[in-house]
Structures are given as C-alpha cells and as structure tokens.
Write a structure and sequence with these properties.
Radius of gyration of chain A: 16 Å
Distance between the termini of chain A: 29 Å
Order of helices and strands of chain A: EHEHEHEHEHEHEE
Strand content of chain A: 15-25%
Strand order of the largest sheet of chain A: 3-2-1-5-4-6
Shape of chain A: globular
Number of helices of chain A: 6
Oligomer: homodimer
Structural class of chain A: alpha/beta
Largest sheet of chain A: 6 strands, parallel
Helix content of chain A: 25-40%
C-alpha cells in the first residue's frame, strides 16, 4: 500500500497545488493521501472525483505528520530536490513493504530529512512537488499505474480528436 | 527545440500552478515557455531561477495562442486527459522537428483540439497539467532530461541525508 503525506499545506495559498498532489497520488496508483492541515474543501474535491471516476482512494486532512511518520510500519521516503538519485533510490526500496511518500511545500522542517529512510530527488533542479510525485510513482510502479482500472461512473477513452466519454450513470 | 504554450492562465488563481508548469518545462528540458496572460511576476520568478540555477530557458507572457499555433513551424501537441495514448503518440512525433506542447488550465477552447496535430493524454484520469507535462517530457526525451547540465551559480548534488549545495557565486 502506498500512502502520500503532504506537509506544509496552507489553506488558500496551496489549495490548487495540494489538490493536484492529491489527484496525482490517486491517478498514479497511491492508495491514500494524508494532509497536515484540516481542509474540508480538498477532501470534498477528492471524494467527488472518486465518485465520478472511480477507485478506492482515501483522503484525510488534519493529521499530525510526526505521529504518522513515527507510527508508520514500512518504508518512509521523502521527495526533495536535495535528495539522492531517483533510479538508484527506487532500486533500494523493498517493494513488499508499505510505503509512505512525504511531499513538502516550500519549507520542510529538518526532522523530515532525518526521519525519512530515503530522501529522493527527481532531478536536482527546482520544479514541482506535483511533478516529483508523478515521476516517482511512474518509476516506482514501472509504468504500471497506466493499467489501473478505476471502474468509475465516467470513463474517458483515448482519442486523438474529440472527447470519448463512456458514462455508466 | 521544445516550446511549451500555457493557455487559460488567470493571474492570482493560477499563479502557483503556472509557475510549476514553467519550472517543470525548464527542468525537464524544454527551451521556452509562452503564457497567454501577461504576468510579470511569473517572468521574474523564472528569470531569477535561471540566474541562480542556470540554463538558457526563455519565458514570455502576454502572447496570442491562436497566432502562436498558426505560425508555429513544427509539430503541435496538446496534452489533455481526453487525448490519445502517451507511448504510441510519442512514437508518431517526428523528433527532428520543433515541438510546441500546449498545456491548458481548466477550460480549453475547442479550436485547440482541432488545431493540434496530436492530442495526447498522460493517462485518462483527472490529475494535473504539471504532472502531465513532466511525464510527457520524461518519455519524449527518453529520460535524457536528467543528464542536462545547467551550469548555474548554484548546483545541488544528490544526497540521501543533508543538503549538498555547490555555490559558484
């Protein structure tokens, strides 16, 4: 099971970025997202997405990161531009264990770097936690996220022109 | 040369998402980003990033998308959750030609779907234009973006613990 822990979320300012982080977590095969700051709006957005597009993705906001990390039974990996190389880091992670992926906003407290078994970079240039999470999950799953079936009310079919939407509503 | 065209940017609301799109474009090997709405703050952020972290990435805001697309001499690809499969689409694109990648915000006018030679999806689930652009550029470059040298004043070295920053300032 893969859980994403989003830390440093500020209501208002980070609303859209954190929503994208959560949607990426769901689309790229994570099972759950935990967000430090209580934010019912983001919870509603994700519940609504799951209702329409399917999947059993879970969201919880207003959690205590220190407690989550301390009590997590599995591997803790933190995505950061200061981290170690993506490919070699992924090879070291035991895929039989549950995985907690920590994704920060602008400022990340030092204890995160210490408590994470792996600090992993998706390139060492500044870019985006949304992109970092997507790339990490793509490589970690060896591209298998693309085959996941969501069994939603709405399903979009690949198409080069026009929108092909199958509705089971 | 790879140019990213960001459309539907709304000052304020989209500031952080569009900044992430631009930073991803730079970090994952695109050469330039064009943004429809004039936004000097995002220009300043990217110019400042390039000054510190290097690279010859260009940014221009306040452009006319229709004109850009019409006059573009190369391949036009639009990233959308309604598009065709990523892998097979990338195989069809002539890599010798210049590439214009269109990345929309929430609403994309219908002419974009028509005018783009390729409408490409990074999975058909809702997620994020930031993630879609990163995944597309990763696959399009066959992972080679990671080898790009930026020759910046600041360079971050991979590290599992602590921050390794080399400063040439």
């Amino acid at each position: 099971m893969i859980t994403v822990l989003r830390i440093g979320h500020r209501i208002g300012r980070d609303k859209r970025i954190t929503t994208h982080v959560a949607l990426v977590a769901r689309a790229f095969g994570a099972n759950k997202i935990l967000i430090d700051t209580l934010d019912k709006k983001i919870e509603e957005t994700l519940v609504s997405t799951c209702e329409r597009f399917g999947g059993d993705f879970k969201i919880k906001t207003g959690v205590k990161p220190k407690k989550i990390i301390k009590e997590f039974n599995g591997t803790v990996a933190h995505l950061t531009m200061y981290g170690d190389e993506l490919k070699s880091s992924i090879q070291k992670i035991d895929k039989k264990k549950d995985l907690l992926i920590i994704v920060g906003a602008e400022k990340v407290p030092p204890y995160i770097y210490e408590d994470a078994e792996y600090n992993i970079s998706v390139g060492n240039q500044p870019h985006s936690e949304v992109a970092a999470l997507a790339l990490f999950l793509d490589k970690f799953s060896d591209g298998k996220w693309l085959n996941k079936e969501f069994y939603g009310k709405i399903k979009i079919l690949p198409s080069n022109k026009g929108k092909k939407v199958v509705s089971n509503e």
